[in-house]
Amino acid sequence: MTITLTVLCTILSIFLPAQHRHEPLSPEFKRKLLEEKWITYTPSCVDPRRPYSEDEMFNVRREIARDFKLLRDCGFTGLVTYGAGSCLTEVPRLAREAGFTSVIGGVWAPWDAAELKAAHAVKSLVDGYCIGNEGMMRGEYNLEPIVTAIADLKRATGLPVTTAEPMHLYEQNPGLVQAGDWIFPTVHPYWAKIRNADEAVAWTVKQFDRLRELGPERTVIFKEVGYPTDGDPTANEELQKRYYDALPKTHCKFMYFEAFDVTWKTHDPCEPYWGLFKADRSPKAYIAALHGLKIDPKSVEPAAARLVVLSPAADSKARCTLTGDGGRLVIRGSCAGLRPDDTELLVFVNPNVPGTGWYLQGAPNGIAGINPDGSWLGSAQIGDSQYPPTAASPAISLSVLAVSKADAVKIRDQKKPGEFFASLPAAVQSVIIKDVKLDMD
User: Does any domain span residue 205?
Assistant: First the structure.
């Protein structure tokens, strides 16, 4: 006797243990899934894998809010995240404040008790959860643990929960079709080696119809569909544009993958380049044509949109260590869309004392370079041996200027680099952190 995969999935839906079976989605949540304009989100200029101090989070929140304003201006109403740890704990609240009407919270590591606790803490701000993302594909867990994790999170929050895996695993694992409250796969014609937009759309629709056959009673929406625009000679913005121009005209339900290029994702050459926007928030061809956005780089803030000073934060206290030549302040940050091999970060400090101005920091202070993941670390000298800083010193201002290495040489050759910096237009002065009070060691 031959049993087709479709019949097997139907049989499993009847005889699976209770934790594998799911109540129908509420009409309101199903409406949101199928009618909102969704996009998946990872912050544009911040690496969510690392921890951030509260001072740093002041600037992280500002950058995420800027991301969200751009996405909302482009009509996106639903947001999907990938994790709940580190700075991502702030995302659901900031998304709601920005006007997103629907949020699906992500949990990257289903075994991480701290991340699960953080996800549970924002249950009033999300409409549902996706726990795990392609973890079965990476060999991090098999079906049974993720089914248990789905059931546990659903029981703890009372919200719909699912997981996401590539299409072929739903074909190979009938239980995966029934694992969550809805079917939420990642489906990319790029990985199927399709480089023609019309063929890609037809292939995507075929996968959608196949999943509806496997789970006729389930709601199906693709968590990820898209095309990278770089990292591969066959990847380009025009292919991404033609694919996204055609796909919404079909009956396929999907979420855009993804909002921004993510430069720290380097496990494959094309991985950093799936965004509708570049890491500096400038639009690629599809989103620019759809919303009349300018692609001209001159229309994008030169560095403020690419470079983030995480510490110190404006209007805060920063620890300053006394040295033999004054005081030293540690500065940290990250950047995206800049070439580490041809970019130098110059640090300017203004002590805000009468008769002074901006001073360019020289060795051993300043920033030595940009790390491969876009992070950077440096220091700034405050005062000197004759006039060391004290807790009563005025609040300082600090700026990090991103320039080419050739331009860095020219700036250093100026007789008074600080005066040259002060004469630059505000948009060129990059990120200025004001009113930093000194907390002396």
Answer: yes
